Amino acid sequence: MSLWKKTFAVIWAGQFFSILSSAVVAYAVMFWMSLKTGSAEVLAFAAVAGLLPQMVLGPFTGVLIDRWDRKRIMIGADAFVALCTAVLAVLFALDKARLGHVYGLLALRSLGQAFHWPALQASIPLLVPEAALLRVAGANQVLISIANLAGPALAAFLINVFDMTWVLLSDVVGAMIAIGTLLFISIPRPEKRAVEGGAGLFREMKQGLREITGRPGLFWLFVFTMAATFFLFPLSALFPLMTLKHFSGGAYEMSLIEIAWGAGMLVGGAAMGMLKLKTNKVVLINSMYILLGSTFALSGFLPPGGFAFFAGLTLVGGVTGAIYSGAFTVVMQTTIEPAALGRAYSIYGSVASAPALIGLLQTGFVADRIGIPNAFIISGSAFILIGAVSFFVRPIRAMMRIPSAPIDAARKSGP
User: Fold this and answer.
1) What pLDDT, on a 0 to 100 scale, did the predictor assign at position 299?
2) How far apart are CA 261 and CA 376, in angstroms?
3) Is the distance from CB of 260 to CB of 274 less than 8 angstroms?
């Protein structure tokens, strides 16, 4: 086995335990809030708490990620999240935990994630050959999908058997395992390019922004991603309530839907990892918008007795979501210089979070005034429209004409 494969395997193993335990806690908290309040607004505020720190601090954290040692950043972020989760576990143990404490934990976890995930994604091109990036993206999607597959089932089981204290402490154990594996690997530091006007937080942030805006095709991909997140995030907060209220389900049915999405992501990630897909990555991105939107729209038309069909459509949605995410990741990693990837990922997280935040704030209104099934139909139709329009935008079409590496076209149009 080559050195890069061994290094990636070590990272992958550690991240598996961390992401799985985090997924268990995230689903357990979501189920706890759903069963405790049954409120769309509570779930929306929880999602806002998880987005706001990344949106506000993302551009700044990106500069620091590109400046500092990325391995130490991931270790520090994992340790910070573990500490915050342990504090909330103590509050539950003392029977003093309230919704405000949960919102606070989600916000603090988001702050740790604002450092951890961009640092991890920015490290991969430094460890993995470019020809293997799509397979690695597929492997990462498999990791995430396994967590999404097992997370809700474990969460539903644990909150019915154990106190929330022990559920939360599982995330601390997962973080410690991830930190332990990172201690045994080395991540090279990229060569830094000179920043025009000298080094400085805002100058480096501006340079990271130019990495995106200076490449028309990539810029328009960002624009359509922002439009998609405006509709996606409110819908993701409504999935549990769609199960509870429209299909008259309970904790078991809620976990089943999350398992269906995770199983779909597992299939999609495995397909990318094993099949060596030759399709242009930008074509994949646009096509997945249309397919994912179709699953949402069709779900909205289902009658109250159509829960099995809802689960099936969610499974297909998970497949499309995994392929979209993997393709977009590869486009990012092969378009942007490694020394600026931390900033680019953080800026991406921030700009994508802004419309998502606006959409989430409308979740309660949508659920109460428009109706949850109608929200699925409207959001799905918007996704289909975004995917269709993307095929006719000239800079994106230019990237689509490159069969093997849409990146080359993007780089030639860059600064």
Assistant:
1) 93
2) 16
3) no
Are 147 and 22 in contact by the 8 Å Cβ rule? The answer is: yes
Cα gap 109→117, rounded to integer Å = 12
Considering the segment(s) 3-412 as one domain, its CATH architecture is Up-down Bundle (1.20)
**What tokens does 49 get?**
């708490």
CA gap 213, 240 in Å, rounded: 37
Which residue would you say has higher pLDDT here, 344 or 165?
Answer: 165
Which residue type is seen at 64? L
Dump pLDDT digits (tens) for 133-179. 767 777 776 777 677 667 777 887 787 777 888 888 888 888 899 89
Q: 303 in helix, strand or coil? A: coil
Share of the chain above pLDDT 90, in %: 10
251-275 and 307-335 helices cross at what angle (nearest 10)? 40
Rg (CA), the chain: 21
pLDDT tens digits, 88-147: 888 888 888 788 888 888 888 878 877 877 787 777 777 777 677 767 777 776 777 677
User: In angstroms, rounded to a whole number, what is the distance separating the alpha carbons of residues 221 and 410?
Assistant: 11
Could you give the CA distance from residue 303 to residue 305 in angstroms, rounded to a whole number? 5
**With contact defined as beta carbons under 8 Å apart, do 284 and 277 qualify?**
yes
Q: Encoding tokens for residue 411?
A: 């780089």
| Spacing of C-alpha 167 from chain mean position | 22
404: DSSP letter: S
Question: What are the structure tokens assigned to 306, written together?
Answer: 């159509």
Q: How far apart are CA 212 and CA 210, in angstroms?
A: 5
Q: Determine the Cα–Cα distance for residues 52 and 211; give it in Å rounded to an integer.
A: 24
Amino acid letter, 137: A
Give yes or no for a contact between 321 and 292, defined as CB atoms under 8 angstroms apart: yes
Kindly state the tokens that stand for 381. 């139709």
Show the DSSP H helices in 68-196 as ranges. 70-93, 99-127, 133-161, 164-182
Tokens matching residue 90: 């103590």
Instruction: Please say whether the beta carbons of 258 and 144 come within 8 A.
Output: no
pTM reported for the whole predicted model: 0.63
Provide the pLDDT confidence category of residue 363 given band limits of 50, 70 and 90: low
Spatial contact of 134 and 326, defined as CB atoms under 8 Å apart:
yes
Residues in the chain: 415
Handedness of CA 308, 310, 316, 318 (dihedral sign): negative
Considering only CA atoms, which of 306, 238, 3, 276 is closest in space to residue 126?
3
